[in-house]
Amino acid sequence: MEFKEAKNKFVQSWGALGSQWGINKTMAQIHALLMVSNQPVSMEDIMDELQISRGNASMNLRALIDWGIVYKAFKPGERREFFTAEKDLDELAVKISKERSKREIKPALKVLKEVSSIEISGAEDEKHFKEQTGKLYDFVLKADNVLDKITEYRENWLTKLVMKIMS
């Protein structure tokens, strides 16, 4: 397999995996392209490489920047904007975990807390509902707290070991 074919296969595969970590295919493809590029890439080159519109590229780059996993890069003498991705895989995992918690886990916790706090009349189905949603809330809260601790203490040698084992 030649370099160009291998790069394209990686970008396409990473794009397909994007939905697994909460982003759309194009956003994941842009991230993949930037992650394996050894130099910052212009929006025009991203559009060309992925065959996407300027609006699509712009919207997804902005989202990747919001996630904290893509950065604008400055090239002396250039008027165009260039972009690069986070290259440190441990840092990338932490940023994705934090963003997914903010977008997925925290809203789920809010709903679970609300529905598990309902007043019940004493009917068995109501008791069961309240008990199960309460247990689920406790479980998700503990998992989120563990994730928070891991991301807070990523500099700790034990946390680094756990992160390596999990990846």
TrEMBL record:
GO molecular function terms attached to this record: DNA binding; DNA-binding transcription factor activity
Gene3D superfamilies the record matches: Winged helix-like DNA-binding domain superfamily/Winged helix DNA-binding domain
Signal peptide positions on this chain: none
Keyword DNA-binding in annotation: yes
Domain of life where this protein originates: Bacteria
Pfam family, one: MarR_2
Keyword Iron among UniProt keywords: no
Entry keyword set: DNA-binding, Transcription, Transcription regulation
Domain HTH marR-type: from-to ranges: 26-80
Family assignment from sequence similarity: Belongs to the GbsR family.
UniProt name for this protein: HTH-type transcriptional regulator
